[in-house]
Amino acid sequence: MTHAGGYVADSRIRAIEWLPWVLAVICFFAAPTYVPLGSYVLTMIIFALSLDLILGYGGIITLGHSAYFGAGAYAAGIFAARVTGEPLLGLLVGTLAAGLLGLITGLIILRTRGLALLMLTLAITSLCLEVANKATDWTGGADGLGGFTVQPILGLFKFDFLGKTAYLYCLVVLFLCWWLVRRLVYSPFGASLTGVRENNVRMHAVGAPVYQRLVISYTISAAMAGLGGALLTQTTQFVGLKVLGFELSGELMVMLILGGVGRIYGAFVGPLAYLVAQDYLAKQFPEYWYFGIGAMLVLVVMFARGGILGIIDALIARVRSRPS
To answer: 80-107: per-residue pLDDT in tens?
Structure first.
């Protein structure tokens, strides 16, 4: 199966694929003061993975993916505030709520293409944002939803103020999401998604159920985005309207392009590079940090069409092409 980066996929896990997990564990012990930021980075990687599944592999362009992230976040928050703060049940509720929303909206918007699809995704996000803003009894409106307590994970691991439990919790959930996405991408289903992205007409001609495959992938993507939103709600014990904002969808797109679209690990590299750069630039240049982010994105788009992973691929190819 050929990916967006132009290489043939191998379903076997290579040794280098364990590198992100080794680095994540090292960071937990080596940089304890950055553990809260690390938890947020891990959550955004889940969110980016969900977008990459439909954008990088299915070719579905959307600027409204925050609708599902926010749906999962609010579902988990309302469940914790009104039913129980059990975290695993909360994750399940957030995932199912976002997945259901993704299924219902996907059945409608995936009948369109191009600009119409893009506008519909924005419209869905606007509707979700307005509902959350007006349903103050449930969501807290503009003030956000807080005041709930998330119980210890499995009754054993309590969320501490240093964020260590939250970091490990996010890391385990991310690992499961990575395993799922990897299995999907390297399966016949993933190959058919890539075929739809590359040549929609040809896939129709060979009798592939294109619309059904797109709806299934969109639903899975929405559910995973909701899982990320629920995770953010539980680790911060607060949820506000920002999780449904257009800005978040735009930032997510920037992260994915920065890392590399359709590469799985672009969803790892992009959020990490973006959020670390944002944290550094915001501290050093609080008034102009957006300029630095924009300049970085422009350079990547102009000189590395495959994102940061594209730069790494080019360097490796150059080294291998040199005579020994």
So the answer is: 999 999 999 999 999 999 999 999 999 9
The radius of gyration of the chain's CA atoms, rounded to the nearest angstrom, is: 20
CATH for 54: 1.10.3470
Which residue type does 284 have? Q
Query: Quick one: which of 99, 105, 111 has its CA closest to 123?
Result: 105
The verdict on residue 288 lying in a domain is yes
* Burial letters 72-103, b for 16+ CB under 10 A, else e: bbbbbbbbbbeeebbbeebbbbbbbbbbbbbb
98 in any annotated domain: yes
Q: How many domains does the chain have?
A: 1
In a domain, 145, yes or no: yes
Mean pLDDT lowest for which of 98-107, 140-149, 163-172, 197-206? 197-206
| One-letter identity of residue 246 | F
Which domain covers residue 210, as residue numbers? 31-321
Percent of the chain as helix, strand, coil, to the nearest 5: 75, 0, 25
Structure tokens at 272: 């990490």
- Residues making up the chain, counted from first to last: 324
Residue type, 198: E
18 in a structural domain: no
